[in-house]
Amino acid sequence: MLKSYSQLKAMLAIARASLIAIFRSPSAVVFSFAFPLIFILVFGFFSGGGQVSLRAAFAPGTDTSYYLYKVIQTIPGIRIVEKPEIEIREDLEKGRLTAIISLEKNQGESPAYTINLKSSEAVSPQNLQVLRSILESVIKDLDHQKYPDAPTYARIDNKVEKIPGRTYRPIDFILPGQLGFSLLSAGVFGVAFLFFSLRQTLVLKRFFATPVTRTFIVLGEGLSRVTFQMITAVVILVVGYFFFHFTLIYGWLTFFELLVLSFLGLVVFMSFGFIVSGIAKHESTIPPLANIVTLPQFLLAGTFFPIDNFPNWLQPFCNLLPLTHLNDAMRNVAFEGMHLYDCGKQLGILGLWAVIGYVAAVKVFKWE
Mean pLDDT score of the chain, rounded to an integer? Predict the structure, then answer.
């Protein structure tokens, strides 16, 4: 009696053969492993350099009519951040802000103002000292230009209030962005080139001569891509954690949740690869089509720097990109201590992109 044909075994055989082919492809290894690791190494080495980054905020309720307030806002070396109070405190705890500046007007006393600084343990002492030096220089110029007869226009309180904090290193921002971009590149370029090549070389047509169904053919090829990229994700996370002290706040639990996010992100991005492979007429048209999908996200989705650095008119577009929400979810899980169920907004938007992507992929995907 003949045994029934196993679609599962056939799918696994296709996945195994395809995975071996991916590892033998220099371009796949370079783009998935080498490029993200190079960026991580570069920014990882930079992260230990004690760089000066002066970002400050005014304490809630500060009187904006104070002349000193207006002067401080115009200092070129200090970027004044305006956010809700809770977000300002969170940034201070992570070292993203050097200090919160509080201005107090002294009634009938000299000096006219007292400047109080609130900082955190996560802030570099060097940055805090530079901030004090700049403020002292501004006060000295005011004394010289406007109030030469007064002892001083303002003074800085020597006692700096410090709150507990956890250092937010550059690697904690860069690594999730590079991991996300690696997933995006693999999902779009890898899938697009793979299925276009299978179609052009008539491999898919040969598959049709076998008992393997079309669904299991796609699943087998997709499984190989997912397996390869999950290995990449593990390598990137391990290198970041052991060599550059990337924050995994809950250890193995956070590591597992980041892998789940990597899997979900890759599934979404693979839909874009199916679309590109379906609409490409020639192999030479795949790179420009794929770059239309990947390049805006590489530049605008918070891969290298926060999207709030962009002009206000551009930020809504940045917040529409799926990579933006994958990066945000990864950073929230790795450093903020959130879990997957706390990232409902990001996961919901990724799910919406998945629906849009696969509906479009079904419409344009070609077998022959």
Answer: 84
Share of the chain above pLDDT 90, in %: 25
Whether the upstream peptide bond of residue 111 has omega within 30° of 0, thus cis, is yes
Q: Are 229 and 266 in contact (CB under 8 A)?
A: yes
CB 163 within 8 A of CB 92: yes
pLDDT over threshold 60, residue 57: yes
The whole-angstrom separation of Cα 309 and Cα 302 is 9
Mean pLDDT of 209-231: 83
For residues 192-213, average pLDDT? 78
Tokens 């500060």 -> residue: 62
Cα distance between residue 145 and residue 298, in whole Å:
48
Q: What is the pLDDT of residue 75?
A: 83
Instruction: Please check the confidence at residue 150 and state whether its pLDDT lies above 50.
Output: yes
**How far from 109 is each of 102, 106, 172, 337, CA to CA, in Å?**
18, 6, 46, 47
**Tokens representing 90?**
């969170």
Compute the average pLDDT of residues 191-218: 78
- The whole-number pLDDT of residue 334 equals 92
Torsion of CA 336, 338, 344, 350, to 10 degrees: 60
- pTM for the model: 0.76
